[in-house]
Design brief:
With 198 residues, this protein is an alpha/beta fold. The protein has helices at residues 13-21, 29-34, 68-75, 93-104, 122-136, 148-161; strands at residues 2-6, 41-45, 56-60, 80-86, 110-115, 173-182, 186-195. 32% of the residues lie in helices and 24% in strands. The relative contact order is 0.16.
């Protein structure tokens, strides 16, 4: 199973992946200096069998509005989304944009993770939960849980259950690598088929 992060800049996506996997996905010098994710980061953790034979892969995406194309590239091949919302900020513009992207990709499996909970009190937690529920509108499943261990257990259960379905049954999507024109034929596009069939 491939898990992808989604959410506003500086809401804790990379920190969450590091807590789950032990891997810091920010590897570029500029990412370290600026404290934000710029490029896709990758990590994994052992899957339901407890070994590395079927690991759960993670794609950590940038949350900055100028890097939305990179987010789409990372989200295009995921099976499960972790929508990350900082408790002190709540739903922000890139949260909504990333949620819209997940909707357009047809992704229905995922969890919402509220980070920075140590910075908020009970009433604020309730307000953020209501804000998230309104934004989701039945896009991702909601299962209560608290802490990294509960989230890790949820991911292992999802990976064990499968349920991704056949890629051939989905809407046709192809990542275009290049396009060119051939006399007498017209435009030719080459790339990788992500879902569906023609």
């Amino acid at each position: 199973m491939i898990v992808g992060t989604a959410g506003h800049v500086d809401h804790g996506k990379t920190t969450l992946v590091r807590a789950l996997t032990g891997v810091d996905t920010d590897r570029l010098k500029e990412e370290k200096a600026r404290g934000i994710t710029i490029d896709l980061g990758f990590a994994y953790m052992p899957g339901p069998a407890g070994d590395a034979s079927e690991p759960i892969g993670f794609v950590d995406v940038p949350g900055h509005e100028r890097l939305v194309r990179t987010m789409v590239a990372g989200a295009a091949g995921i099976d499960y989304a972790l929508l990350v919302v900082a408790g002190d900020d709540g739903i922000m513009p890139q949260t909504r944009e990333h949620l819209d992207i997940l909707r357009l990709l047809g992704l229905k499996r995922g969890s919402v993770v509220v980070t920075k909970c140590d910075r908020i009190d009970g009433p604020r937690r309730s307000a953020v939960a209501a804000e998230i529920a309104a934004a989701l509108q039945r896009v991702l499943h909601r299962r209560p849980g608290e802490g990294i261990d509960a989230l890790r257990d949820r991911l292992l259960a999802e990976a064990g259950a499968g349920g991704a379905g056949s890629a051939a049954d989905l809407r046709f999507r192809m990542g275009v690598d290049r396009s060119f024109n051939l006399p007498g034929i017209g435009t030719v596009a080459t790339g990788t088929v992500l879902d569906g069939a023609v």
